Amino acid sequence: MTIRLGILGLGSMGRHHVRNARATEGVELVALADLAGDRFGVAPPLEVLPGVEDLIAAGIDAAIVAVPTAFHEEAALLLAEAGVHTLVEKPLSVSVESGRRIAEAFERADLVGAVGYVERCNPALVEMRRRIAQGQLGEVYQIVTRRQSPFPARISDVGVVKDLATHDVDLASWVVGAPYEMMFAQVGYRSGRVHEDLLLASGRFANGVLVNHQVNWLTPYKDRTTIVIGEHGALVADTAMGDLSFYENGSSPLQWEQIAAFRGVSEGTVTRYALDKREPLAVEHEHFRDAILGRGGEHVSMAEGVRTLEVLEGILESARTGQVIRFSE
């Protein structure tokens, strides 16, 4: 079976979806739509249609929604009604309530509904999660993420929490294998925009692992780092480069008493792993395809997308109120 795919939105993410869709075996890209046209010149030989109704009319089996978050619900509900399997770019929608409406529509229609959390396909994080599950770190103590960069001009409808931190909220829970239990957050507004551009958030997962997220649009360099600390050392992922390193606790006792008094562990061997580095978005497309064909479940479900929205809204509520927010199981 060849999946007939349509893509809604040809902007900063949509153009990359077009490229990867054309390279995905078993998928035929048959229709594109964007009211703003083809500003990156990726459409030919296809014409650019005005909207989602035109994609549906083209007879598609599946769709990717890569328009601004504010338009996700309208497009997704029309696609669900038309019986079209759909991958919606992160976050699933602008609010928990909206996200639930989308997820429920796809569940009722018995369709594949996926969310584009591409970091779950990052080779460094995939390998990190595998090694943690195999017990390399022993008991896991803490996960720390940093996602910092200059402000992206393309973002105007949400702040740094729902645009950037959404990746870290999703990946951290996925890596440690547990839902969030509680969070406390602070945000800042330093660039004169309506939405927040700085975030510091800390909390705990249901399995007792501590978590900390540092996210901003005000750093003059790009930083994409995930660190997991456990009883045997630390795994450090540079997700911008797809690199994973292991900082092992040393086995030799420290002889220098003054230093030993301050150090809980000694420094051991540092290993950077050689990984098979495929483009994460290409892997995401394959996961979506396989889910449609009933031969895989590695896509991020819309139910998971809703849970991430719940944590994001809890983070924003904590920042507004100064209170710790607790999440139900």
Describe the structure.
With 329 residues, this protein is an alpha/beta fold. The protein folds into 2 domains: 3-111, Rossmann fold (3-Layer(aba) Sandwich); 127-273 and 309-326, 2-Layer Sandwich (Dihydrodipicolinate Reductase, domain 2), CATH 3.30.360.10. It is built from 9 helices and 15 strands. The strands form 2 sheets. It has a 9-stranded mixed sheet with strand order 14-13-12-11-7-10-9-8-15. It has a 6-stranded parallel sheet with strand order 3-2-1-4-5-6, with helices on both faces. The chain is globular, with a radius of gyration of 21 Å.
Overview in brief:
The chain has 329 residues and is α/β, with parallel strands linked by helices. It contains nine helices and 15 strands.
Low-confidence stretches: none
Report the CATH C-level class of the largest domain: Alpha Beta
Q: Kindly estimate the percentage of residues that lie in beta strands according to DSSP.
A: 25-35%
Separation, N- and C-terminal Cα atoms: 39 Å
Named CATH architecture of the largest domain: 2-Layer Sandwich
Question: What's the CATH H-level superfamily name of the largest domain?
Answer: Dihydrodipicolinate Reductase, domain 2
How many domain modules?
Answer: 2
Largest sheet: 9 strands, mixed
Fill in the CATH topology of the largest domain.
Dihydrodipicolinate Reductase, domain 2
What integer value in Å does the Rg equal?
21 Å
How many H/I helices? 9
